[in-house]
Amino acid sequence: METTSAPTAAEARALLERAERLSRGAHDATRWPYIAFILALGVATSMGTFAMAVTTGRGFGLAYVGTLAVTFVLLIFFMISIRGRSAFARSRRWTAYIASWFASYAAALAVVIWAHGDVVLAGVASGIVLVVALVCAAWEARS
Amino acid sequence: MTATVPEQHPRHRLDDLLQNPVRFSIMAALDRAGTLGFKEVRDAVEITDSALSKQASALEAAGYVSVGKSFAGKMPRTSLSLTRQGRAAWKAHLATLREIAGSAGEL
């Protein structure tokens, strides 16, 4: 049976500091691939969808293949960098980040499909993808 | 005339399970991240595998932590996640510690 004495005010302060240090340390050590991934994914898909929306022919093909290739490389980087890590993988926060990015990306793709050539609309839609990714990364960095 | 009930000292509200330093540290490590791999927790808390395993089992039995098992290829992987009940208990424990830390007199 364990017996523990109640902490004094000084000990309680030390415990709180230890909790803060451990919590921050564990989080900082594991979150960087997630922040890097969501940032890079946002930049790549934002630029990619903008390029696809304003180009035709070979330019469109290049933008399409380029976006796919960069996304594929990012996914590989992400899978390798989070090997052995479990942080955030099933967290609600991480699900919210990906869902937010996906919603903005789907909207940008809709612009590519139904408003092809509209530079203003393409700029706004791609900008939203970038802003969503930046907000998610900033939120994660500050959390 | 009304009888006055003496106010209970905050130390009585501390969670007994979380007064163990290793269990306290495990909960602290999981606080922000939510879910961490077994090795990540072990490195953060700086304890042996067997000590972590023992204390994680105690936290799991109390419903504070859920232990997940999965495979990455052929390699087994264990993860620890803070449950809703665990988060509530942790927050209450920290709140009590803050109360004690802020109290003027020593116990």
Automatic annotation (TrEMBL), chain A:
This is Chemotaxis protein CheY. The keyword Transmembrane helix applies. The lineage of its organism: Bacteria, Bacillati, Actinomycetota, Actinomycetes, Micrococcales. Keywords: Membrane, Transmembrane, Transmembrane helix. It comes from the Bacteria. It comes from Herbiconiux oxytropis. The chain crosses the membrane at residues 34-55, 61-82, 94-114, 120-139.
TrEMBL record, chain B:
It comes from the Bacteria. Gene3D superfamilies: Winged helix-like DNA-binding domain superfamily/Winged helix DNA-binding domain. Residues 22-100 form the Winged helix DNA-binding domain. SUPFAM superfamilies: Winged helix' DNA-binding domain. Pfam families: HTH_34. This is Transcriptional regulator.
